[in-house]
Amino acid sequence: MLAAHPVLTGVATAREAVPGMHDRLLLHAGPPIAWERASGPLRGAVVGALLYEGLAGDEAGAVALVERGRVALAPCHDHQAVGPMAGVVSASMAVWVIEDSPHGGRACSTLNEGYGKVLRYGAFSAEVIAKLGWMNRVMAPVLAEALALAGGIDLRALLAEALHMGDEGHNRNKAGSLLLLKLLAPWVARAAAPAVAEEVLRFLGDNALSVLNPVMAACKVMTDAAHGVAGSTVVTAMARNGTDFGLRVSGLGERWFTAPAAVPEGLYFPGFGAADANPDIGDSTITETAGLGAFAMAAAPAIVNFIGGTPRDALDATLEMYEITAAEHRHFTIPALGFRGTPTGIDLRKVVELGITPRVNTGIAHRAAGVGQIGAGWVRPPLAVFVAALEAFAERYGF
C-alpha cells in the first residue's frame, strides 16, 4: 500500500476503461444491494443514469427496467472503480483512469459534477442530464487530450503537497483541486479552442471537489496493492451504499462483510436536521482506508468549519487512528505532527481488540432522491462488522 504510485493517465468512457462494463450494467457505491433495499439517493441516481443513457424516457420507465431485471446493478469496487455518494457509473460516462505501475493496478472514477443538484445525490432533472451531457461530450475529450499531452499527473505527489496545504483528501480538497487545475491548465489551453478551454477551466476551477474523484481512484489502486495477501488482517476497502456499510480484508479475498450504515452526526444546512438524513453513503471511505480523510485531519484543521467540532478534534481524530493502523505513510506527512506519516492500513485485530472503529468524515445526503447534500459530519462504521470479519478470518486460518 505504501509503495503504490498512482498516476492519472487518461480519460475514457466507462465502456472503454472499466472491466466488464456493458450498456445495461450500472455500477454503484458500496457493497452489493438489491433494488428493493436501495436508498432514495441511490434510486434517484440509477434513474438519472438510465435517462442519461437513453434507456428510459421517464422515471417510471427507468424503475420498470430495473424491476424487470433488464438492467444489472453491481458495486463499483467489483469493477475496479469507485464513486462518491451514490457512485453510479453507466457505460457512456467519462471516467478518469489511474494506474499504479509498481503493481500493475488500475482504477477508474467518474468526473465530479460540482455542487448543487447532481446525479451523485440522486437528482435526475433536465438540468442534471444536460450537465452530464456537456461534461462527457465537451469536457472529457479535452481532458483526455490534455493528459495525453502532459504525459500523466503524479497523484501521489499531488496528495502529498495538498496535505501540506490544508487538505485531508476526502471532504477538504481545495488545495488539491487547485493543484490539479494548475497542472492541467497549460495542456487544456493547447488541446481546445480558446472558448472551450475557458469553459473547461472555469468549471474545474469553480469546483473545490474536482480532484476528489481521481483521488478516490488513486486510493483504490493503493489499497488494492495490499489486497490478497494471505494471512493479512489489513482492511483494503470500506464503502457504503446508503443502506449498508461494507468492508473487505486483504486475507479474505473478495468477500464483503456488511452491517447497517449509520447516520452521520454533524452540521446541517439551514432547514434540515437528522430526521432528513440518509444513512451514510459513498465509496469515498476508500480515502480513510488509504490513510487520508479523517485519518489525516490533523493536516486540515479548517475542515471543522464544515463538519463540526474544533481544531483539537481534528488533531485527536488522527492521533486515535494511529492506535488501529499497521503503519505510518512514508509519502503522506502532517506538518502539525512534526511531519509524522498519516496512520495507514487499518488492522482488523486492533479495531476489535481496542474497540476503536475507524473515523470517517463525510457529506450528508437527504434521504429523498434529488434533494442533495444537507450537511456534513462524522460517522463510524459499526464494530460488529469488524468482529464478523475477524471471526471469519479465524475460521479460515484455523485460529
Summarize the structure.
This protein has 399 residues and is α+β, with helices and mostly antiparallel strands.
In which range does the helix fraction lie? 25-40%
Quote the distance from N terminus to C terminus: 26 Å
Q: Low-confidence parts lasting 5 or more residues at pLDDT below 50?
A: none
CATH C-level class of the largest domain is Alpha Beta
Instruction: Write the CATH architecture name of the largest domain.
Output: Alpha-Beta Complex
Q: For the CA atoms, what is the radius of gyration?
A: 20 Å
Notes on the structure:
With 399 residues, this protein is α+β, with helices and mostly antiparallel strands. The protein folds into two domains: 6-216, Enterococcus faecalis V583 fold (Alpha-Beta Complex); 227-397, Alpha-Beta Complex (v583 fold), CATH 3.90.1700. Helix content is 36%, strand content 22%. The protein has 13 helices and 16 strands. The protein has helices at residues 14-17, 40-53, 59-67, 126-150, 155-163, 174-191, 194-205, 212-224, 286-289, 304-307, 311-321, 348-354, 383-397; strands spanning 6-13, 25-28, 72-75, 81-82, 94-100, 105-110, 153-154, 235-241, 244-249, 257-260, 265-268, 281-282, 325-334, 340-346, 360-365, 373-379. The protein has a five-stranded mixed beta sheet with strand order 4-6-5-1-7. The chain has a four-stranded antiparallel beta sheet with strand order 10-9-8-12. A hairpin with a 2-residue loop joins strand 8 (235-241) and strand 9. It is globular and about 55 Å long. The model has no long low-confidence stretch (mean pLDDT 96).
